[in-house]
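Action item from last week, closing it out:
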Amino acid sequence: MPKQGTNPYKRPGSPYWYIWFLDASGREQRKSTRSKHLANARRMLAKMRQEVEDSRTGLVDRFAKSRGRPLEEFVRDYRAHLVAHDRAPRYVSSCIRHLHAAIRASEVSTLTDFDVQSVASHLNEVRANRSSKTFKEHVGSLKAFGSWLLENRLWPENPFAVMKAKKAKDGDKTFVRMGLELKQVTLLAEAATVRGLQEYARTHQGRPSPFHAEIEQSGKDRALLYWTGATTGFRKEELGAWTWEDLYLVGDSPRIELSGRFTKNGHDANIPLQPFIADALKAKRKSLSVASGKPVNQRDQVFHIPVDLAEHVRRDAVHAGILKDHRPTYKRLDFHCLRYSCVRILRELQVPVEVVQKVLRHSDIRLTLELYGSTEDEMVTNKMRGVVPTPELFRSLGSSVGSSPRSNAGEDDETRGTGPNDQNGGATSASAG
């Protein structure tokens, strides 16, 4: 650091002179003059001070170049900035998507018109039709973009600095995602294999489709995608990043090893695959190899994620009878629901919650329990029915209040032997429900 009042100054170990000054916005700037001569450094300092003074008095427009550049060029440069700083691909994709949506809605083409007022109607629409979390993400993307403009001296201020988004709460959500049971995932996958052909036949007077093979294969691929998501807990974007070289399908312990570059938390994922999933993936790889006449490229993607996957999931669920065609708007069944379903299935199969946490790759087990492990009302009813033995004081009330058979005196021994940790008792309760 320079001594107090020294300007220009030298840094230890450097042969060059450095200068410091306050820019037009009042922030301190320090630069190397790349010169070993003090006189040259002083001349450069005087020049920089004069430029700052001209900018403050309006003689020089420091942002004239930025005012004339198309807005899309800034978005492209911002994306390159995020990639260069090794931000997660999912984060980069969502930020750029949010910016493009705001630009299209505001119908502006330059930074001069891109501000809070221009995006207000777009954000109001997001707030009205999407969850509070999604609204907060849109606001965050705009503010981060504005901060980048300011930090790189591309614009005099962050045009979105005044925007605020309240912290998302469960009560603010406009929808609730469903978690499917094992039998429901089975129905969903089966519907995926037949819905396309049956819908074509229904809308074409029973005529077979000329694209029968393609429609059939698309349904099978979607069914495999459903089962993979429901048994591994991977998100849609993460599954889309799988390549054949990430899979280990030989041996007794098939698994997927996905780089942290493609996971939401940025950590490498090593998740076991169910044997039937591994067999299906091997069969898929073999069929692709036969169709192309050569071995599959190990860097090819395993899954093709349809753009309208959420709509496919909904229509498959309606076809399977899981959803009504006109369901309540607060209920949502999309592909991410299969991550919820993974927890419900593992819980249904009595897998320990610590294992579920590892499968979902949660750093905090409370997230596993609170976000994805919430127990359905029906399950609570089944598990709590008659689980507490009837005290002696209340046994005489059994016949008059219509209590469950477990409260009858003739079943005292069975009742005393049944508790929350009794597997036989739990199975009886589940079947009774």
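Closing note: The chain is about 50% helix and 5% strand.
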